Amino acid sequence: MPKSKTATTAKSGSARLYIQATFNTTKVTITDLKGNVLAWCNAGGCGFKGARRSTPYAATTTIENAVHKAKDMGISEFSVFVKGPGPGRDAAMRVLKSAGIDLVQIADITPIPHNGCRPKKPRRV
């Protein structure tokens, strides 16, 4: 059944690219327009271990591998959703700009707390 999903995506040529840039690593997930995962890649899977996973260079390598997988499936245009405060955010955007793919949408979906946690009770002496 996954082959039919890939064939459907190859016909349409568009997908969603989710980038999660944390302080420890960068994760990339490629889904079709319905949300079914087609491919994924992360900094650890690209050969980076330890503190090197959190570098912008590791993020660029991760994005390049993910885009290469998508091009093999026949995907040419992406809606990009970036999440997280990590160092791979800016590097990922630079790679996507120079990768030769069509970017339909770029959105930041980083969660922002509205009012934070409840504060501690005041100390009674």
Description:
The structure is a single chain. The chain is α/β, with parallel strands linked by helices. It has one domain (2-108): 2-Layer Sandwich (Nucleotidyltransferase, domain 5), CATH 3.30.420.80. The protein contains three helices and five strands, in the order H-E-E-E-H-E-H-E. The chain has a five-stranded mixed β-sheet with strand order 3-2-1-4-5, covered by helices on one side. The radius of gyration is 18 Å and the shape is globular. The model has no long low-confidence stretch (mean pLDDT 89).
Summarize the structure.
By secondary structure, the chain is α/β, with parallel strands linked by helices. It has helices at 2-12, 56-73, 88-98, and strands at 14-21, 26-31, 37-42, 77-83, 102-108.
Mean pLDDT: 89
Structural class based on helices, strands and sheet pairing? alpha/beta
Number of helices: 3
The CATH class: Alpha Beta
CATH homology superfamily name: Ribosomal protein S11/S14
What is the approximate shape?
globular
Task: Give the low-confidence spans.
Answer: none
**Spatial sequence of strands, sheet with the most strands:** 3-2-1-4-5
Measured by DSSP, the beta-strand proportion falls in 25-35%
Number of domains: 1
Characteristic key phrases:
single chain, Nucleotidyltransferase, domain 5, five-stranded mixed β-sheet, 3 helices, 5 strands
